[in-house]
Amino acid sequence: MLTNVNVKHEFNKETGHVFNFDADYNQYEISNISYLNIFQNEPGSTESLSEQNLRQPIRIYVGQADYTLPFDSTFKAEVGAKSSFAEIDNDLKFLRGSTIDPAQSNDFLYRENINAGYLNLSKKAGPFDLNAGLRAEQTVVSGETMDERVLDRNYLQWFPSASALYHVNDHFGLQGSYSRRVNRPGFQQQNPFAFFIDSLTYQQGNPSLLPQVSNNAQFAVTYDNQPFVRISYSKTDDVIIENAPRLEGTRTFTTAANLAQYERWAFELNFPIKIGKIIDGYGGNQFIHNAYNAEYLGQTYDRGKWNWLAYWQINATLPADFKLELGGWYMTKFLEEFFDIGAMGGLNFGVSKTFWDKRGRLSLSVNDILYTERSNVRVDYADVIVDFRERDDSRNARLTFSYRFGNTELKNSRRRSTGSENESSRVKVE
Questions:
Q1: For the segment 75-118, what is each residue's pLDDT rounded down to a tens digit?
Q2: Which H, E and C letters describe the chain, residue by residue?
């Protein structure tokens, strides 16, 4: 259940003098039941019927206020404040037959309060567009399991940002920017339960997870305000490795943990595609270097790898209101945390036709035509060696019909984000 109340007051619509307030309440009722048939590795052993029942009710409350004050047509200030409250009551029951196994059952209550305020200034000065901002966030979290407090934190973080754009002419520009950002762990990642996958494999959360903080810088040559050539660098501390492997006897656990420092370089080239009045679109290439440094399982994980990513989208406008679309991407082998992931890609095709004064639209789309959006993954670190393949139901075809009723000349309702979108994105719903 998602509920939002929004109040917007325009002091001066033409200058953008605006006050906006959002109040949100989000409620999730997440449950996951796994029925397990466990066999002992002994001749004639009986089958053990078990059940793993996980309930995760999540409540999120958010209040946010934003105020925009233009001093003149070239200079404005934006200030705002936000408070969010989240409560997640994780309840895991593991039943062997009809009897609860207390050794594999648990209850974890997580509470989080984040208070934030920000100030942003923007100024146009001749050919320059300048922007500078500062955001402060106070985080208060607590966690209790089986009447024992296992988490109690209260800390303050600062996040500055700045950017400058120089307009060389009507089309080209030079842009540089810096920002410090935070990426908070998902709510379920902080659940300490060992979740049964099979008799030798478990997935376990980590209530001690910290947010990962990154410093980002980039320089770009823009064309019509879009990056044509871009060089970017980011360095992230307290990187959340989502599936850090470890062995306990014969059992393998994967656990989210703040393990590494991560550096990323990216060199990007984008270009428009235009052939006459029929064909248009865009294409691009990225050369990316991912590097990780972590102390884990008594060893140092220090690895880096380059990879190449290409992408394209081509549209063709044909007679009789037909339109064709062809898009795709390809990425060479790359490094993601402890995972070496093989090359992958995808090719998509679509055709559509409009009719009845463009009120009606019939479209056919086919995704992943070659069925190449699959993962071949290898982990080889310390005593952990794992190979696996993962393939989703990515190849599919969709036939869609739409019709627009009413007055097509009416202005669309304004689009905006709600105050709780960041918090909702931290809820993993499968």
A1: 999 999 999 999 988 887 878 777 887 777 778 888 999 999 99
A2: CEEEEEEEEEEECCCCEEEEEEEEEEEEEEEEEEEEEEECCCCCCCEEEEEEEEEEEEEEEEEEEEEEEEEECCEEEEEEEEEEEEEEEEEEEEEECCEECHHHCEEEEEEEEEEEEEEEEEEEECCEEEEEEEEEEEEEEEEEECCEEEEEEEEEEEEEEEEEEEECCCCEEEEEEEEEEEECCCHHHHCCCEEEEECCEEEECCCCCCCEEEEEEEEEEEECCEEEEEEEEEEEEEEEEEEEEEEECCEEEEEEEEEEEEEEEEEEEEEEEEECCCEEEEEEEEEEEEEEEEEECCEEEEEEEEEEEEEEEEEEEECCCEEEEEEEEEECCEEECCEEECCEEEEEEEEEEEECCCCEEEEEEEECCCCCCEEEEEEEECCEEEEEEEECCCCEEEEEEEECCCCCCCCCCCCCCCCCHHHHCCCCCC
